Amino acid sequence: MDLVLTDLHVATMAGPGYGVIEDGAIVAGGGSAGDRRIRWIGPRSGLPGDGAVETRSLGGRWVTPALIDCHTHLVFAGDRSGEFEQRLGGATYEEIARAGGGILSTVRATREASADELYAAALPRVQALSAEGVGTIEIKSGYGLDVESELKMLSVARRLGEATAVTVRTSLLAAHAIPPEYERDPDAYVDLICDELMPEVAAGKLADAVDAYCESIAFSAEQVSRLFERAADLGLPVRLHADQLSDGGGAALAARFGALSADHLEYTSPGGVRAMADSGVVGVLLPGAFVTLGETQSPPIDAMRERGVPIAIATDCNPGTSPICSLRSAMMLAARVFGLTPEECLAGTTREAARALGLDDRGTLEAGKRADVAVWDVGHPRELAYWFGTPQLAELILDGQTTAF
Ligand code: DI6
Ligand code: FE
Question: pTM for the whole thing?
Answer without folding.
Answer: 0.98
